[in-house]
């Protein structure tokens, strides 16, 4: 529910008030039957039952509102109140003198849609006017009740002033016997007819003049004892609460009946107390009978009187209760009245339900589609927009931006000024550079999309200019430069606080999407670094100093006149011994190049461009002295004339040794090629694999002549990792061990019945049209909008590497068409449809050109809105999704095939979203995440009456989660990956990797939301020798201490069923036997087979397991862990398996 929308509050309040009628009926019936079982002597219990029912009936209103807002039953209608905003450049250090005026045609078109949306809202607002009437009537009645209460309080105050002190008697002893700690004034008033208690903070007992003068002292003492009992029980306070409840629920007849029972039981309690204190029951009964015969009763609502609120009948009832305490008092419930009110309430609820259903069916399909279309003009679908960029020819279109730069005095700046541009459109982004001329003029080519410029003039402050959505040439820009200010940094020791001299750093201007050129600087003896010509733009800083962990800061803002202090922490060195694989001797002149850098929240791939952080002399020891204590690294160990080694994970304080082998080319001998083929072309590459990232390197296409059906390829890999080869549309992979066994033989065979098939040519496919038809319900408009279609770009031909392609197609009269190769497999996603949803189509086979796929559509709605920071600013860098809320016993998937915003770049400021289409009749949850912070909305119900809802979500800052991961023996599990996993309420799971332990097994996860709607876990799966563990995060603890259990081993081999040879590179996994539902993990990772086809698991619990491989079918075996039993899997390899067979 959106509590900022008063219409939703009115809707839920009206429904809660109507629900209160039947809730009152239930509570009144419960009170009636319970009091029929409790005798008059237990008046305290009877009073507690009745008063509890009264309070429950009042609390039922807010509880019902909360329940309706959570379950969606409240059905708040949120209309598309669209916003239009204009953004401008953010530079403060430069004056924009002249900027060309943009066209307003686009803005006018959005405003037209905005007005159309508002017209639709007016129609829907009228259909919900019943809620406003209900709340209006209730408000008037509530204020009337409050006025009654206020009038009574004013009258009581006047009575206190008019009364006189009742002198001649002392009542302190009676007050003490009644349990009062201090005496209460007793006064006489001519305007009251019975004894009563007035006031809460300073109470007073009022006696009528006739009673004070004519009633015997013994009876008067009993009357005053009754009033003292009211005071001891705090009845004036509870009476005030009761009066407020009567004002709040004045419309509910059952509340009035319960309230009457409360008053009757209250007087009965005080009667029993007065008799107990005085010990004169007979005289008390006579006093009650005299009051009943006189027909006296209470006159003021806020006063607790001796006569209560009843007349003669109620006083006589109190007499009967004192005479027969074991009897059941008469409830005075008139059955005809009860049935009459029940009938009235039933009619009201039925009318409300029928009216609501009637209102819900007012919105037509045309109106629903039109309103969703209007919302889509302002609220984007980022994921759909990204998909549309695939294959769009104009996505690389460039436009020019030009202008002139001037100094503060109007002079031409000296030198050619670097200009960096950034543009992003859909799935692609590009950075480019240009320079201003010697006359200060500049012209830069910028690709179409959202674009920014960063200027870095020498001797002036850098500045950025936001071009906005750049889709046309911009000319005539003029900028006045600013000299900026002098910024200062100071580097200090994080432990001692002493200044650090000699810190080497690279600084670059960080304008978010676009960054400046790096500049090298060194701190002086005081740890100071001077940065001249600073602006408001922050700096990206990389700092290193021997003996200290590297410093990485993405955004450092420096204020004029202040020194920004940065700390470096002492670290331990990483030592690597480098040996020759041929003779075991130490190798000198070796370099250590950083390739991957990981820490919690940071995954950085540097590839071959990474920095060299250590070199060795002739002794062969590599020592890296500036690694961060909380980071994991992967490196190249490089030496000229040798294959580079790829090593990791490693970190500060570690040590290892590595062998380097002399470089030599790999020899590939290819046979079985058609004799008519003159040349064979192969593509070779390598891939660097880590648990978190992979990166391809060394991709190269090599050609060789074909002689006698054979060809030889020589290729030198740059690093000792597996080589991938693509030849004749086949993907192959070879491990380093296979290189050493001699030439790698690749044989293509020609079948006997097709001796002349050209194996190197592309298999024959037919191109033809495919028609996708969306069938809407009878009488509804034809489907419109877009469809996301996926197909195999090169056709579904056996033996080919399948290349999948996605296209976003426009629907015309409910039909989308495109040309595809046949045969094929087609996938269709509903994302892009307006007002309708289809069940996603997955891998639909088509065999002949001209095929038609018909898909049934159902009515759908949309959820739109925005995400804010806690301070109310628009949130940035968001991932947004939507899923269907599942019930506990429901088997339907929560995934409905609709993506909202599935990617985010740094400084991505898109905080608006549109989730569409969403089939009506279900509840949906919108998910928002940024790094480790997750937020899930309350379930939102969409139906025909309210198919469009708005959400305004606030992303919390979250809290840090700290912990330590330990091995079974208590030692730290250093440099390990953990996953943050959130099981959302409603049946959907979210995983976020990248949590990393340091050398002491410690980890910190920033920004975790402890209030997220779901369960938050840490998952640990890849620690060698340890069982996987799912850890339920306890946010009440300051530190999570996680100790893993020891794992059991199972080893084995994978063999090819056709040849009996060992299979290299086959991924093996294990599952429990027998299957255990809901067990975690559902399967255990075992890695890939080595050069001998062997595998080993070290992470299994004790028990039986079924071993299998993803490389082929058949060959499943059952083994018991931890007993030394070997598993041999003999499989039929899949055609797409890219491993190899051992010789």
Quick structural overview:
The protein folds into nine domains: 6-90 and 108-134, no CATH class; 135-334, no CATH class; 397-480, Immunoglobulin-like; 485-568, Carboxypeptidase-like, regulatory domain (Immunoglobulin-like), CATH 2.60.40.1120; 574-660, Sandwich (Immunoglobulin-like); 666-747, Sandwich (Immunoglobulin-like), CATH 2.60.40; 766-858, Immunoglobulins (Immunoglobulin-like), CATH 2.60.40; 959-1044, Immunoglobulin-like, CATH 2.60.40; and more. 23% of the residues lie in helices and 36% in strands.
Report on the structure:
The protein has 1143 residues and is an alpha+beta fold. It has nine domains: 6-90 and 108-134, no CATH class; 135-334, no CATH class; 397-480, Immunoglobulins (Immunoglobulin-like), CATH 2.60.40; 485-568, Carboxypeptidase-like, regulatory domain (Immunoglobulin-like), CATH 2.60.40; 574-660, Sandwich (Immunoglobulin-like); 666-747, Sandwich (Immunoglobulin-like), CATH 2.60.40; 766-858, Immunoglobulins (Immunoglobulin-like, Sandwich); 959-1044, Immunoglobulin-like, CATH 2.60.40.1120; and more. The protein is built from 15 helices and 66 strands. The strands form 17 sheets. Strands 36, 39, 41, 43, 45 and 49 form a six-stranded mixed β-sheet that branches. Helix 9 (253-278) packs across helix 11. It is elongated, with a radius of gyration of 41 Å. It starts with 5 loop residues before the first helix and ends with a strand. Mean pLDDT is 82; it is low at 72-127, 356-360 and 750-763. InterPro entries: Beta-lactam_resp_regulator, Carb-bd-like_fold, Peptidase_M56. It comes from Puniceicoccus vermicola. Residues 100-295 form the Peptidase M56 domain.
